[in-house]
Design goal:
The complex is a heterodimer of chains A (788) and B (312). Chain A is globular. In chain A, strand 35 and strand 36 form a beta hairpin. Chain A has 788 residues and is mainly β. Chain A is built from four helices and 48 strands. With 312 residues, chain B is mostly beta strands. Helices cover 12% and strands 43% of the residues of chain B. In chain B, the strands form two sheets. In chain B, strands 2, 3, 5, 6, 7, 8, 9, 12, 13, 14, 15, 17 and 18 form a 13-stranded mixed sheet that branches. Chain B has a three-stranded antiparallel sheet with strand order 10-11-16, with no helix packed on it. In chain B, strand 6 and strand 7 form a beta hairpin. The N terminus of chain B is likely disordered. The chains are: A mainly beta (788), B mainly beta (312). Chains A and B meet through strand 23, strand 24, strand 25, strand 26 and strand 41 of A and helix 1, strand 1, strand 3, strand 4 and strand 10 of B. Strand 41 of chain A pairs antiparallel with strand 4 of chain B.
């Protein structure tokens, strides 16, 4: 009996020890056809009810008790995969998922994707690039930033502008990262198009609040855009020809399974069309030149040394080029303006062990604008003379950072790391050279170049306690400029409580500091806008934001989230009234600006359908947005220009069949706040010899800042795509129209005099009125795309 | 007219689906063309504006050595008020120098301005001047200025065809040089005048005309009355050389160059007026408040000291 008892006890202890042992399953989740990493793919173990998600590089780690396990791997747009095995040791696996036949008919059945209510992260939105490409586009140019403007809490600036105004913030308060590198100018053609070529992109994620500790440096949003990495298995390409630009993307293996490349380019061709027309007007012996285009080039190279080490190199070069030139025998004249970005990143992924992943990155980012004018001729004595003036402005960053992902067990996902960034600012320098027989000038004005160094470190943990999930973190930063130090500790907190399987309550709190600023007009972002550092006189911008919301999934198809937020901003920058700073050297920029406060609050509702033939979303935002500066508007609080009380956006894509897709978007917003003159007075008078009726020149002035509203804005865009699969390639015709029902949306307001006439042509009455001016009518477009 | 497959044929396009796509696009092009009528880009809107209480508005820009001083006096009106401006002819306009009454102005119906004569020429450098205007219909207004000391040019050289304009034309130029006084803020304006003579058959008639000036120097901006203006922030306390040009032939006739040292109010008025005119109807511009230094009213009272040079 004692022997039986002892044996039973021994077996029981053995079984318990097996159960108490824990092993780690780790590895990568990849796209089967291209070998690309799938970020935020879901890993779920059904017996224990625990799971995790893959990181940006497709890496996952899940520690479970030794036992038989049933794992499911899933990702939106891909066929899920299941795996059953006995977990009795640390296991390393690579999972390859196949994409579904068509994105719109994702039919994920048994497996659970990570649903909106499961994440502790709130105020974060990811729009699949394929979905962005299907939305109607202005002039047929797919635009990532314009697609984001359809999300709640995100507003556009003026008509056709690609700037993002997120929860009351201005565009410089958005940290825009391309493969982790900051991009300082995100617009082409004065904001009409963004610099991002959607064909080169893998994913786009916008975080509007509840910022995890790993992010810092801007007050209002983090926009992460990652490029594709290049197909490790096969050579592919895609491109399109549109009304104003064409693009081509090529990717493929250099060494199959190990090394791959991606090359993508886009260029407009207005100069190629108008250039020959202009040249045809040339007189004999003269040479006229015109430059009018923009371009983007994306390049990426990846190399897999082994399962633990991977290297990536990526680069982006883009510019807007405008100019004209004239040459005739000994005389020449050349003028123009160019602006653009160059960014590059070198990244090393290292899986140190099955629970620890490291990512080390070196980055370089440069934005500059050149304005130049040059002349050369011979004077009356025949001696050569020349005059050259070149205006330069810009910003350069060089940074090094290291990030760690440590997943000790399913209840903790710890991230920590640090970075150092060297900034160089050139807020306007003018080089002037004048050479003639009796006068030489070679001078540099306003070369007040500045330097600063920024340090960041963070630690955060995603913790699960049953139905409660929390992301708790701390971001520390320091900024050194002109011998002065600024430093901050920024606590971050995100909470999610799962009420039941489908409903969660979320809350967040975050503080942010911003050390660099953009001097810009409220009306429009211009390439001459200047990036400047905080200094001894200009303190860093700061904000704190809190949000509370609920999130729910219905029938596995619909997601709804409702969020309220409140944000306060301190030390926000604005030009003083009447100040302008076009070229940056006639005065110190610090004398032209003033700092003040901002406050914004509101409610966002987001309903999304992700599956089926019809997908899309409805977003609604109710918000208030204020600014206060002691030196503006006599110190009285005033509405921010983009204070938009109601903002509605609807985006729908319907797949009629495999070959035809319809898509549409409708937006509505309360009119922008504007400043209007209240009175007028004369500044000059001309007697004209008629004392009874002198002629006055007058000006209009007065009026509190942003005290009036333009009429409401609403617009519908539609497009239809005709898709055909050939044997070895596929093609798509897209026909679209912007502002389909031609609503005259106001761009600005003027005062004017309207005259009514009698039938005999004499003046009956003159009235002074306000007129709204709109700029974009209904605009059709057509483009042809191909893929192989 | 709607384009459809019955009234338009495309024999070179055989496939029906391609024709359908082309018809859709042609209809869209037609719609786009119709929507491009300029009348479609504006509409009158109703906006509630608070009532405005009219006040006096003046423009008084005086220069040293002027023998006739003129200023505009009128009223302000609400933005939607369709009445015309009026000049209060009965207004009392007085100029004080160092607290002593210097001149009382009289209304001149020929040019609709108030004017006064000063035989010895206006202005003493360093003196303070106060302008007061009172009228039965409006609250009284006043403004004060101190006349600066004129900064002289150290050289001015005429260069026929000496530079190329911003439009790429070869033009006559004048190269000037001056020494900016150290410390303080100084504001400059440059203007040129030509004294012309012609014989009308009986007498020789002389008249003065403005010469339009421009410059490729980015420190220079435009003021009213064909002035070029610039502050001294970029070269405070140093010598500065400036190249200005004109489309006129500068080596013809008697040319007089005025190098003026302005009061700060005068400079800000000129600069804000230039910004104002650049911003009018410009949707990319911030609204501009034109600089005003009039207590209880609107407008400008500004002074300038003059260094004159004859160019030969």
């Amino acid at each position: 009996m004692n022997k039986v008892l002892l044996t039973l006890i021994g077996l029981g202890l053995f079984a318990y020890s097996l159960h108490a042992q824990r092993h780690t399953i780790s590895g990568y989740i990849l796209d089967e056809s291209s070998g690309e990493n799938l970020l935020a793919a879901n890993v779920y173990e059904s017996k224990s009810g625990t799971g995790t998600t893959s990181n940006t590089y497709g890496f996952f780690s899940l520690t479970l008790p030794a036992d038989s396990v049933e794992l499911s791997f899933s990702y939106i747009g891909y066929q899920p995969k299941s795996l059953r095995f006995l977990l009795n040791k640390d296991t390393s696996i690579t999972i390859r998922l196949s994409s579904s036949v068509s994105l719109q008919t994702v039919e994920v059945t048994a497996e659970r994707l990570e649903r909106i209510e499961e994440s502790s992260q709130m105020s974060r939105m990811e729009v699949p690039v394929e979905q962005i490409k299907k939305l109607p586009a202005l002039l047929g140019e797919v635009d990532v930033l314009k697609a984001l403007q359809l999300l709640p809490g995100v507003q556009s600036g003026g008509e056709g502008q690609s700037g993002l105004y997120v929860r009351g913030g201005s565009p410089d308060q958005n940290l825009v990262l391309l493969d982790g590198v900051p991009v300082y100018n995100v617009s082409h053609l004065l904001g009409i198009f963004s610099v991002f070529n959607a064909d080169a992109l893998k994913n786009v994620t916008l975080t509007k609040g509840g910022f995890p500790a790993r992010y810092g440096g801007r007050l209002s949003s983090i926009l992460e855009i990652n490029m594709k990495e290049g197909n490790l298995e096969e050579f592919h390409g895609e491109g399109s020809i549109g009304l104003i630009s064409s693009k081509l993307t090529l990717e493929g293996p250099i060494n199959k399974g190990k090394t791959a490349f991606l090359l993508s380019g886009r260029r407009t061709y207005a100069d190629l069309i108008f250039g020959p027309i202009i040249n045809s007007t040339e007189e004999e012996g003269t040479d006229l030149g015109v430059k009018l285009f923009f371009y983007d080039l994306n390049a990426k190279l990846q190399h897999k040394f082994n399962d633990k080490h991977r290297l990536f190199a990526s680069a982006y070069l883009g510019a807007d080029v405008f100019g004209n030139s004239y040459k005739e025998s000994d005389e020449s004249y050349d003028t123009g303006i160019d602006w653009g970005n160059l960014i590059s990143a070198l990244r090393w992924n290292w899986q140190l062990n099955n629970k620890l992943f490291a990512n080390t990155t070196l980055t370089y980012s440069r934005y500059k604008i050149d304005f130049y004018i040059g002349t050369s001729l011979r004077d009356e004595t025949g001696s050569p003379t020349s005059f050259d003036a070149k205006y330069l402005s810009g910003i350069k960053d060089l940074a090094a950072k290291v990030d760690f992902d440590y997943i000790p067990n399913p209840n903790h996902y710890i991230r920590f790391g640090g970075s150092v960034t060297g900034h160089e600012y050139s807020p306007g320098a003018l080089a002037v050279k004048n050479a003639s027989p009796d006068f030489k000038l070679d001078t540099l004005l306003g070369s007040n170049r500045a330097y600063s160094t920024e340090y960041n470190a963070y630690i955060e943990d995603d913790i699960r306690w049953g139905a409660l999930k929390a992301n708790i973190g701390l971001h520390a930063s320091a900024f050194q400029v002109e011998g002065k130090w600024y430093s901050s500790l920024q606590p971050r907190l995100g909470l999610r409580y799962l009420m039941n399987n489908d409903l969660a309550i979320k809350a967040s709190y975050s503080t942010m500091w911003q050390y660099i600023n953009l001097l810009t007009s409220e009306s429009i972002n211009l390439p001459t806008d200047l990036w400047v550092p905080s200094t001894r006189r200009i303190a860093p911008q700061q904000s704190w934001q809190t949000a509370l919301g609920v999130a729910r999934t219905f029938n596995d198809k619909y997601e709804i989230s409702i969020e309220g937020y409140y944000k306060e901003m301190k030390n926000v920058l604005s030009y003083k009234e009447g100040a302008s700073f076009l070229f940056g050297f006639e005065a110190d920029w610090q004398d032209q600006v003033t700092q003040g406060q901002g406050e914004s609050y509101g409610l966002e509702v987001f309903l999304q359908k992700k599956k089926g033939k019809t997908t899309g979303w409805i977003g609604y935002t109710l918000s208030w947005n204020w600014r206060q500066f002691d030196e503006i508007n006599n110190g009285k609080r005033f509405p921010f220009r983009y204070d938009r009380r109601h903002d509605i956006s609807v985006a729908v894509t319907h797949q009629i069949n495999d070959r035809i897709t319809l898509s549409g978007a409708w937006v509505y917003g309360t009119g922008n706040a504007i400043t209007l003159p209240l009175y007028r007075y004369p500044t000059q008078v001309w007697g004209n010899g008629n004392p009874a009726n002198p002629y006055f020149e007058e000006i209009e002035t007065g009026g509190e800042k942003n005290a009036f509203r333009m009429t409401d804005y609403h617009r519908m865009d539609l497009s239809i795509s005709f898709h055909k699969k050939k044997r070895k390639w596929e093609r798509t015709w897209v026909i679209g129209f912007y502002n389909a029902y031609y609503h005259r949306n106001p761009y600005y307001v003027i005062s004017d005099t309207e005259t009514q006439y009698n039938p005999d042509g004499t003046i009956k009455e003159r009235n002074r009125v306000f007129k709204e001016i709109s700029i974009l009518p209904i605009i059709p477009s057509v483009s042809y795309g191909f893929k192989f | 007219m709607v384009l459809n497959s019955r009234n338009i044929s495309f024999p070179f396009i055989k496939k029906r689906k391609m024709k359908i796509k082309l018809y859709i696009f042609l209809n869209l092009i037609a719609l786009f063309s119709l929507s491009c009528d300029p009348e479609n880009f504006s509409q009158v809107v109703t906006i509630e504006i608070p009532p405005h209480e009219s006040a006096l508005a003046i423009r008084a820009l005086f220069q040293e050595s002027d023998t006739t001083l003129e200023l505009l006096v009128a009223n302000s009106l609400g933005i939607l008020d369709k009445n015309d401006f009026e000049i209060p002819r009965e207004a009392i306009v007085q100029l004080y120098e160092d607290e002593q009454l210097l001149q009382t102005f009289n209304y001149n119906p020929i040019n609709s301005k108030f004017s006064a004569s000063i035989n010895e020429g206006f202005g003493k450098a360093g003196s303070s001047y106060r302008l007061e205007v009172s009228s039965a219909k409006y609250p009284s207004i006043k403004a004060e200025q101190i006349l600066p000391t004129a900064v002289p040019l150290t050289s001015a050289i005429l260069k026929p065809d000496g530079t190329i304009s911003s439009d790429g034309d070869r033009v006559d130029a004048i190269e000037i040089e001056f020494q900016d006084p150290a410390g303080g803020e100084n504001y400059y304006a440059i203007a040129a005048f030509r004294d012309n003579r012609f014989f009308d058959g009986t007498d020789t008639v002389t008249y003065t005309s403005n010469v339009y000036l421009d410059s490729n120097d980015p420190l220079v901006s435009y003021g009213e009355s064909n002035f070029l203006i610039m502050p001294d922030k970029a070269f405070n306390g140093k010598k500065y050389k400036l190249l200005i040009y004109s489309y006129d032939e500068l080596d013809q006739g008697d040319l007089r160059l005025h190098f003026m040292t302005l009061t700060k109010d005068s400079y800000l008025f000129h600069r804000s007026m230039d910004d104002y005119y650049n911003a009018v109807d410009n949707p990319f511009a911030e609204p501009v408040n034109v600089h005003s230094n009039i207590q209880n009213g609107h407008g400008i009272f500004g002074l300038g000291a003059v260094f004159e040079l004859k160019i030969q």
